[in-house]
UniProtKB/TrEMBL annotation:
Occurrences of domain NAD(P)-binding (ranges): 62-176
Membrane spanning stretches: 12-29
InterPro entries, A to Z: NAD(P)-bd_dom, NAD(P)-bd_dom_sf
Subunit structure: Monomer. Forms homodimers during oxidative stress. Interacts (via N-terminus) with elongation factor EEF1A1 (via middle-region); the interaction is direct and competes with EEF1A1 binding to guanyl-nucleotide exchange factor EEF1B2, thereby inhibiting GDP for GTP exchange and reactivation of EEF1A1. Interacts with nuclear transport receptors XPO4, IPO5/RANBP5, IPO7, IPO9 and KPNB1 as well as GCN1L1/GCN1 and LRPPRC probably through their HEAT repeats. Binds NCOA5/CIA.
Keyword Transmembrane recorded: yes
Keywords assigned: Membrane, Transmembrane, Transmembrane helix
UniProt KW Disulfide bond keyword: no
Superkingdom, natural source: Eukaryota
Pfam families given in the database record: NAD_binding_10
Protein name: Protein HTATIP2
Length: 187
């Protein structure tokens, strides 16, 4: 019985020490993690300020869609670009004062080479182009979501654009049985 009590007491002591060590480690890493997040936030702020000072410009394709609207609003709020150009198939109307300095270029995506000037001189491009199969049919969907995107990237690159950010799709796969996922793969 005495041996059993000693073993239980020793086990309790080991368990207590282990819990204390684990608690100290969790506290240490948790404290370090929060300071890392603060540091990351400060780094992002510094990066934005540095980028803002470089007088960069961007364009957005598909600013009339839901994702494009959100992107445009975010870019205007962050104010990191000296110039934002909306490139689309029609002129957009905005009532808020924050949109008054936007440049808009209306293009025909079927003849994009004729509108190469709209893409010239931008540092960054954002592509949120898209339609639905229901709206455009299978061929129209492929033309908008794949062909227009690729051609836009080519024209932008030729115009000096060094970054082209594309909204694609999770699960995009050229071997997919689903047209949507197959079309959202870009080479």
């Amino acid at each position: 019985m005495k041996l059993l009590c000693f073993t239980l007491g020793q086990a309790t002591w080991i368990l207590t020490v282990t819990v204390a060590i684990l608690a100290a480690l969790v506290y240490y890493f948790d404290d370090t993690a929060s300071s890392k997040y603060t540091s990351m936030a400060e780094n992002i702020k510094t990066l934005e300020e540095n980028f803002r000072g470089q007088n960069k410009s961007c364009f957005i394709l598909g600013a009339s869609g839901e994702t494009g609207k959100v992107l445009l609003r975010e870019l205007l709020e962050r104010n990191i670009f000296s110039k934002i150009t909306l490139i689309g198939r029609r002129q957009l109307t905005f009532e808020d004062k924050e949109y008054e300095n936007l440049v808009q270029e209306v293009v025909n995506f079927e003849k994009l080479d004729d509108y190469a000037a709209a893409f010239m001189g931008h540092d960054v491009g954002y592509c949120c182009l898209g339609t639905t199969r229901a709206k455009a049919g299978a061929d129209g969907f492929i033309r908008v979501d794949h062909d227009y995107v690729l051609k836009s990237a080519e024209v932008a690159k030729a115009g000096g654009c060094t970054q082209f950010h594309l909204e694609s799709s999770r699960g995009a796969d050229k071997n997919s049985n689903f047209l949507y996922l197959k079309v959202k793969v870009y080479h």
